[in-house]
Amino acid sequence: MERQGNTIDRSLIKSCINMFNSLPDKVNTTKTVFEVDLEKYILLETREFYTKESKRLLKLSDANEYLIQCEKILEEEHNRAKEEMILHNMSTIIKMESSGLFFMLDNEKIDDLNRLYNLFVNVDPNLTELRENIFSKITELGEIINSKVDNMLLLDKSKNAETRGALITTYAFAWVDNIFLLKDKYNKILKLAFQGNKYIQNTISDAFSKNINTNPRSIEFISIFIDENLKKKNKIKLLLYSNILKTKIFSKNIIKIILQNDSYNHIQYQMIQKNI
């Protein structure tokens, strides 16, 4: 009916199909009532409809008009398939255990993520649900990184000042390393799987801003990181890590740290400023 221009109740039809799909066949219990009693007839009806429709259009149209009608019909079918198979099932696909979005992200399944992206962006150009879940995943991982450092600092409260200072430096480097590795991973996923999508790029940036700014010692840790590397004249490492220092609000704080520390000369300041 819909193919002939009539309005149908898609949700009602979907509910009926789901019901038949949930009922096992009496004879072959490995299959559903839908598969045994309905599917083949629906496919047959579809084939017959398009056979008749093609004959009808060929009688009424020249070659160009016929091809235009074919394009229109295929586009309509494509849109129906996108809506029913992707748009209405985004949440289910994302949350599938051991195969959904989080599994793909954790295991850097670039091809699978790219396929998911291409299908999702066709039905939701803003990628709202996908971005919400990416944000959730990154901030969850950020909480783990932050809590690990917090726990280590709590355990080492009993150390003397000198030992504790050295440990804080170690923890600062560990925290920066972990944040950087996570950011590097998602930069790769953004580029290779999500085709550099600006909406997703902003979501990733927002998530890392939250991760960094949620840690009350983040400024201290990055200050230690910059200080130690500048003392060692390790400019290469600072340049490599400049990506994580670009995080929105945070870059201003880094510049403040540099300006407030007399050990940073003008050349060193310019180098950091240029790369954040």
Low-confidence stretches: 247-253, 261-269
How many helices? The count is: 13
Query: Which whole number gives the mean pLDDT?
Result: 78
Content of β-strand: under 5%
Following the backbone from N to C, one meets helices and strands in this order, namely HHHHHHHHHHHHH
Helix content: over 70%
CA distance, first residue to last residue:
59 Å
Largest sheet: none
Q: Any idea what the shape is?
A: elongated
Structural class label: mainly alpha
Number of strands: 0
Q: What is the C-alpha radius of gyration, as a whole number of Å?
A: 28 Å
Domain Cullin N-terminal: 1-237
InterPro entries: Cullin, Cullin_N, Cullin_repeat-like_dom_sf
GO biological process, one term: ubiquitin-dependent protein catabolic process
Organism: Pneumocystis wakefieldiae
Structure description:
With 276 residues, the protein is mainly alpha-helical. Helices cover 75% and strands 0% of the residues. The protein has 13 helices and no strands. The chain has helices spanning 10-22, 33-60, 63-85, 90-95, 101-106, 110-123, 128-155, 161-192, 198-214, 218-231, 235-240, 250-260, 266-275. The longest helix is centred in the middle third of the chain and has 32 residues, at 161-192. InterPro entries: Cullin (IPR045093), Cullin_N (IPR001373), Cullin_repeat-like_dom_sf (IPR016159).
